[in-house]
Amino acid sequence: MAGCEPLLVPRLYVVSVSEEHIVMREPIDVMLVRVADELSEIQRAWAAFETAVGLRGRKFYGAFDPMTNTYGVCAACRPDDDPSAFGAERGTLPGGRYACVRLLGEPPAVYEQIGPTAERLARRPDVDPTRPTIEYYRRRDVIDVLVPVV
Q1: Second label for 97, Cα 20 to 30 Å away, from 25, 36, 65, 118?
Q2: Per-residue model confidence as pLDDT tens digits over 108-128
Q3: How close are the terminal C-alpha atoms of the chain, in Å?
């Protein structure tokens, strides 16, 4: 119709969840900042850590330790990284078997699915409580939730 503006429909990116599957992971050397497992502390730590280390070319992880009830904001170490320059420490995310679910969606909606997904996976009878639950941030809109299993 002449004189009519086209109807603009906002693009909606729905969060989708992959099927649960088992993966084998190698240990990963990381630099990390540990905080209490409280949302405000985790958000503050992520913001400060990303600013300090930069986003470009980094692989980021989150690691929840059920033994200490702490959360680690992590980035894979590069050969020339000095963790202390970023206010971080050096550590290793353990390898082994993990139950994995991939989350796909736009932030912040996709972030809201991490906790419920990890809690569901943690109810498996074969969970290994001696290793941390890992969040692998493949991209800003693709996150693997990994719960260790025996």
Answers
A1: 36
A2: 899 999 999 999 999 999 999
A3: 64
Cβ neighbours of 53 (radius 10 Å): 21
Considering just the CA atoms, what is the radius of gyration of the chain in Å?
18
Q: What per-residue confidence (pLDDT) applies to 15?
A: 61
d(CA 73, CA 32): 5
Q: What is the pLDDT of residues 44-74, one digit of tens each?
A: 999 999 999 998 899 999 999 999 999 999 9
Q: What is the C-alpha to C-alpha distance for residues 37 and 80, in angstroms, rounded to an integer?
A: 30
